[in-house]
């Protein structure tokens, strides 16, 4: 028995992955897979069979700036301009003082030479971890560009006026959401969340002030690594280590 023929635009063609299945719009159900072709799909989805050779760019010590924020700005702007999905999404890793790590995605909202700012609920799981252990890590992944940026540093709360200014710029619905959601706490049901949101909508007829437990953290970096995928797994890794007011640049093996 030969391998099933791959049909362009069919079940195994690119269109399945290019747009959501009809039912996905309603309930995110997976499309039904016809039995005779199941073994082929298993082959296609076996992670050990997935391989990409990265060839989109290179990163050389001779061309990088001495200031990592300049390189960050260049890469971030390029990710936005080339329409990478959610280009400001980054993984934030925190950990308890005794070393139990946890990680999740948050959105970068500001950055400058002082660091990288995201917003969250200070009473959330991550908020409690940062308050007891401010050492954190961030990871940006722009797969379409075969690029990754890793950051290590210390997170501190930004000032209340800074958080106020950003909160005021958010859509009203999001501002109400910040009041309605006790982030990271166990809740009885989805309905309860919706009810809380409705209550908040009635409670705040006009302006929606920032809840005190909601605000920004700034991650001040001590290390920033720029990773560019290269062929044969010989990727480029350029690391900037903070040394006082300066940065020391080194290359790491991939
Ligand atoms: C694309 C994306 C963006 C997100 N942005 C944020 C964010 O900016 N701030 C935030 O608190 N949570 C954000 N979340 C939700 C977090 O990943 C996480 O579920 C939440 O913050 C609770 O995490 P914790 O319980 O570890 O504190 C985002 C999730 C995704 C998938």
Describe this protein's structure.
The chain is an alpha+beta fold. The chain has 2 domains: 21-49, no CATH class; 68-181 and 210-251, Pnp Oxidase, Chain A (Roll), CATH 2.30.110.10. The protein is built from 8 helices and 9 strands. Strands 1, 2, 3, 4, 5, 6, 7, 8 and 9 form a 9-stranded antiparallel sheet that branches. 20% of the residues are buried. The model is unreliable at 1-27 (pLDDT under 50). The structure holds flavin mononucleotide. Flavin mononucleotide is lined by residues 86, 89, 102, 104-107, 118-120, 124-126, 183-184. The site of flavin mononucleotide (FMN) has 15 residues, from strand 2, strand 4 and helix 5.
Number of helices: 8
Total number of domains: 2
Mean pLDDT: 88
Structural class based on helices, strands and sheet pairing? alpha+beta
CATH class bucket of the largest domain: Mainly Beta
Instruction: List the uncertain runs.
Output: 1-27
Q: Major sheet, described briefly?
A: 9 strands, antiparallel
Span between termini: 41 Å
Number of strands: 9
């Amino acid at each position: 028995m030969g391998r099933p023929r791959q049909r362009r635009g069919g079940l195994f063609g690119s269109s399945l992955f290019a747009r959501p299945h009809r039912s996905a719009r309603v309930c995110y159900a997976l499309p039904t897979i016809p039995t005779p072709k199941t073994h082929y799909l298993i082959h296609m989805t076996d992670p050990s069979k997935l391989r990409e050779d990265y060839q989109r760019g290179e990163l050389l010590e001779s061309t990088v700036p001495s200031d990592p924020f300049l390189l960050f700005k260049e890469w971030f702007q390029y990710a936005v301009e080339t329409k990478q999905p959610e280009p400001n999404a980054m993984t934030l890793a925190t950990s308890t003082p005794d070393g139990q790590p946890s990680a999740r995605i948050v959105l970068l909202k500001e950055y400058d030479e002082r660091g990288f700012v995201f917003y969250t609920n200070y009473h959330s799981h991550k908020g409690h971890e940062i308050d007891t252990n401010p050492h954190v890590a961030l990871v940006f992944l722009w797969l379409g560009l075969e690029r990754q940026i890793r950051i290590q540093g210390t997170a501190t709360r930004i000032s209340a006026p800074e958080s106020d200014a950003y909160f005021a710029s958010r859509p009203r619905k999001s501002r109400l959401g910040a009041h309605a959601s006790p982030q990271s706490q166990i809740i009885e049901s989805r309905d309860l969340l919706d009810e809380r949101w409705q209550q908040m909508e009635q409670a705040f007829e006009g302006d929606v002030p920032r809840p005190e437990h909601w605000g920004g953290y700034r991650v001040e970096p001590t290390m920033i690594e720029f990773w560019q995928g290269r062929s044969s797994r010989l990727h480029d890794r350029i690391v900037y280590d903070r040394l006082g007011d300066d940065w020391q640049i080194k290359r790491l093996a991939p």
